[in-house]
Amino acid sequence: MVNSKKIGKTGKLFISISIVCCIVFVMPLVANAMHIMEGYLPLGHCIAWGAVCLPFIATGVIRLRRTVAENRRALMLLAMSGAYVFVLSSLKIPSVTGSCSHMTGAGLSAILFGVGTTSILGIIVLMFQALLLAHGGLTTLGANAFSMAIAGPAMTMLLYKIGKKMKLNNSAIIFVAVSIGSLLTYCLSALQLAIAHPGDAGIATSAIKFLGVFAPTQIPLAVLEGILTVLVVMGMEKYARRELSAISYFAQSPGE
User: Whole-prediction pTM value?
Assistant: First the structure.
């Protein structure tokens, strides 16, 4: 009972902090903060990126339903992961016309639940931001979802699993995996923009230019996201051990 109360207080504290962050940081930035915004990609590109996302979404729905059905304790972790994605992905630094630099927050969910579930959480966040915060867009939902909620988390999960098999320090694994996953998200965003707007120099040159604009802000943000995620996981390991054990988080660590 004592442990349950601690977990409850921790969950309430996390939600309270999330709300405060949204009010203080998100609302003043809504007018200027965007993912790839509405109408910035050709219709054909929007359809193509959406089609690429469909298999991951289908897999995510199946896994999410199975996770919730088999273990109700996972609900709190899912809620925390979703809130983490929303808060971090809403803290924007304008970077280039049509997009911006920001943390993704998707690495935490990728480590805990995998790519499929993360794709669902990411799409929910992106839709909420597009509809209620004028942030991003519905036509560009597929492109934004693929870069932020699928490709980046896939890299994070892959690096995390490799690190675990090598029996490396858990905090170091999380930091590297999340940071590189965040960077990959913006490499793909730059590529998406370059494909849509190659200019006279071509896609490769355009992509390099977009990456050059993103780099000064995105590299420090990726490092910061890695640090924040390590701290969040450390807190969860202390106050939500039963929930983490229920989703076999500790079983991923050889020798633990």
Answer: 0.80
